[in-house]
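Predict the holo structure. Ligand: fe (ii) ion.
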Amino acid sequence: MPSLANVIPDPPALLATIDAACTNVGSHLHGPAHWRAVGWTGLELLAGEPAADPAVVLLFAMFHDSMRLDDGYDPQHGPRAAVFAASLHGRHFHLPDDRLKWLTRAIRDHTAGRLAGNPTIACCWDADRLNLWRVGVRPDPAFLSTETARRPEVIERAAKLEGQRHGWDEIVRRHSELPPGDGDTKTAATPQS
Ligand SMILES: [Fe+2]
Ligand SMILES: [Fe+2]
């Protein structure tokens, strides 16, 4: 698996491209502060899922809500964001085929409310759901796929939305310091999907 620097050679350029194309970039609920919070939360979940790929989780954080039309009901924002992410592959980021599929599936289906058996996708969805506190919703362990995310202290701590206070430089650096994951698609977390 290539290093994060090879997957995303120029993170500021990628982020500038996402910001420029984003259809709801001014939102404090679904805009860049939330994306950073998802990236930050993903760090703790990745530590508990050594098979998961940090680069995919980081890219999920950056892309997953970029194509929302507004902050209301918009179930197609996942599929639209998956198409947008795929359109930047080979230009702003580079992933092996299997991991590109995990990324686009994680983005496309993150609104469907399912659990994930793939550890990388599980980290993506749990990082997003632990940040439901920002809209006044306590994350429900029944909708969290990883053992780490279901721990009561992790759910409670997520209420602080700490990641919103960290910059992308630090979040990208912290992801780059994690091992790339062995790509094992099995996880002990849940048997679903
Ligand atoms: Fe979303
Ligand atoms: Fe989100």
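Residues 64-65, 77, 110-111 surround fe (ii) ion (ligand 1) (CB under 6 Å). The first helix runs from residue 4 to 7.
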